[in-house]
């Protein structure tokens, strides 16, 4: 149990007697103020400001039985001013005390939720401050540029101010614009690492979609029958492919029908396909695989199915498979791996991974573009564009105007983290 706040060490001393040395674990008997033994456990203290929250902190490591936990919580609640932490409150206090910024806090939330190796690596990069350091470096360049521009505006007649610093400033801002644009281009992959590659299995009824879903999941996820239109709703499973999260969706068969429920299933299938990163368009070998899906601009792989009962047609499909015998499934797995590797080529994991990051980066880039391109505008107007660019960039790490974002961000945390 973690206790944080100005009275944390006082409460801990009351429970365990003498306090151990800072950041050194000691075995202590934990007692109520009436002298009743609650448990024996390890106790550590972290005096401010060298703690996670920046406040005095203590940790009491006890046995996890419900009665032990309940007894200690009851005793802690008896101290004046001591209460249960709210969702994410420890991390919020760390933010408010300057121990972390918003990107690092979000990285911690992602680290707690990480299920694949690449999700863990991305979260660690954010938690360790790699992304924050990049953004703060850009913000410093914007601040310096604004200072030079404003110096020229205010003190152009002074001897110690160069006659014109504009050329130097705008050359650096054009370079920054290019860097920001390249960084924003990696947002798609950052979101894929964090949220998973969205792969949709689509095609006509009885093309083998549900069979493929079950084969890749290695369990019975979808009902498989010879009756067309068996799958009515969108089903999905999460896969771990080479450390990447992949969200696989099975959809209703695409065809013209007057059956009301099936039409709704087809409508949902097309909506899911439009939001996909990859579509596996299935068709029984001998039938042309669909390649056009309304609203979708990504990759479509034509997959010929039931190769166990049909001769393989090499030129008609990107891959031929049989969910019954397993033929082609290894190649399909490698097809997805190759796509992920191509998306990640030349990209580090210092990537924006949330819609909030993407939106604010786009705002900053737009303002910076206006500052660089508005050659005929006055320096005061161009300096204002730079201020707007810096403002958007600062909101990513939480340096400015973040109160309206905090409740949403910290609601992702468990109690007390």
UniProtKB/TrEMBL annotation:
GO MF annotation, one: GTPase activity
Residues engaged in binding K(+): 206, 225, 227, 230
PROSITE patterns the UniProt entry points to: G_TRME
Keyword Translocase among UniProt keywords: no
InterPro entries per record: G_TrmE (IPR031168), GTP-bd (IPR006073), GTP-bd_TrmE_N (IPR018948), GTPase_MnmE (IPR004520), MnmE_dom2 (IPR027368), MnmE_helical (IPR025867), P-loop_NTPase (IPR027417), Small_GTP-bd (IPR005225)
E.C. numbers: 3.6.-.-
Sites where the protein binds GTP: 206-211, 225-231, 250-253
Signal sequence bounds: none
UniProt keyword Methyltransferase present: no
Highest taxon of source: Bacteria
UniProt keyword list: Cytoplasm, GTP-binding, Hydrolase, Magnesium, Metal-binding, Nucleotide-binding, Potassium, tRNA processing
GO BP: tRNA methylation; tRNA wobble uridine modification
Residues holding (6S)-5-formyl-5,6,7,8-tetrahydrofolate: 31, 59, 99, 417
Textual note on the cofactor: Binds 1 potassium ion per subunit.
One GO CC annotation: cytoplasm
Residues covered by the TrmE-type G domain: 196-341
Subcellular location: Cytoplasm
Annotated binding of Mg(2+), by residue: 210, 231
Subunit organization: Homodimer. Heterotetramer of two MnmE and two MnmG subunits.
Similarity-based family: Belongs to the TRAFAC class TrmE-Era-EngA-EngB-Septin-like GTPase superfamily. TrmE GTPase family.
Protein name: tRNA modification GTPase MnmE
Species this protein is from: Rhizobium paranaense
Lineage of the species this protein comes from: Bacteria, Pseudomonadati, Pseudomonadota, Alphaproteobacteria, Hyphomicrobiales
Gene this chain is encoded by: mnmE
């Amino acid at each position: 149990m973690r206790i944080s706040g100005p009275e944390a060490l006082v409460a801990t001393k009351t429970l365990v007697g003498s306090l151990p040395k800072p950041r050194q674990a000691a075995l202590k008997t934990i007692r109520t103020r009436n002298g009743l033994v609650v448990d024996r456990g390890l106790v550590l203290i972290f005096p401010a400001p060298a703690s996670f929250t920046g406040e005095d902190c203590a940790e009491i490591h006890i046995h996890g039985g419900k009665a032990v936990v309940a007894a200690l919580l009851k005793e802690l609640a008896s101290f004046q001013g001591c209460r249960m932490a709210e969702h994410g409150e420890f991390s919020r206090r760390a933010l408010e005390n300057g121990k972390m910024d918003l990107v690092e806090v979000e990285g911690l939330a992602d680290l707690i939720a990480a299920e694949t190796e690449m999700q863990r690596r991305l979260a660690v990069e954010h938690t360790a401050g790699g992304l924050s350091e990049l953004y703060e470096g850009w913000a410093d360049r914007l601040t310096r540029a604004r200072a030079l521009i404003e110096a020229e505006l205010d003190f152009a007649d002074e001897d110690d101010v160069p006659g014109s610093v504009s050329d130097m400033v705008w050359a650096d801002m054009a370079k920054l614009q290019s860097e920001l644009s390249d960084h924003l281009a990696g947002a798609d992959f950052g979101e894929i690492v964090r949220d998973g590659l969205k792969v949709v299995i689509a095609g006509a009824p009885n093309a083998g979609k549900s069979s493929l879903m079950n084969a890749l999941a290695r369990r019975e996820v979808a009902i498989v029958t010879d009756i067309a239109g068996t799958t009515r709703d969108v089903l999905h499973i999460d896969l771990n492919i080479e450390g990447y999260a992949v969200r696989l969706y099975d959809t209703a068969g695409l065809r013209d029908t007057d059956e009301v429920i099936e039409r709704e299933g087809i409508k949902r299938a097309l909506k899911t396909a439009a939001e996909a990163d990859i579509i596996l368009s299935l068709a029984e070998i001998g039938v042309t695989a669909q390649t056009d899906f309304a609203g979708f601009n990504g990759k479509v792989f034509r997959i010929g199915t039931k190769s166990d009962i049909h001769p393989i047609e090499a030129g008609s499909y990107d891959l031929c498979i049989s969910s019954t015998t397993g033929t082609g499934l290894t190649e399909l797995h490698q097809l997805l791996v190759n796509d992920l590797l191509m998306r990640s080529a030349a990209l580090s994991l210092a990537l924006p991974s949330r819609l909030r990051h993407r939106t604010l980066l786009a705002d900053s880039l737009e303002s910076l573009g206006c500052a660089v391109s508005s050659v005929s505008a006055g320096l005061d107007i161009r300096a204002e564009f730079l201020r707007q660019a810096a403002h958007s960039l600062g909101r990513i790490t939480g340096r400015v105007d973040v109160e309206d974002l905090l409740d949403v961000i910290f609601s992702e945390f468990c109690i007390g983290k």
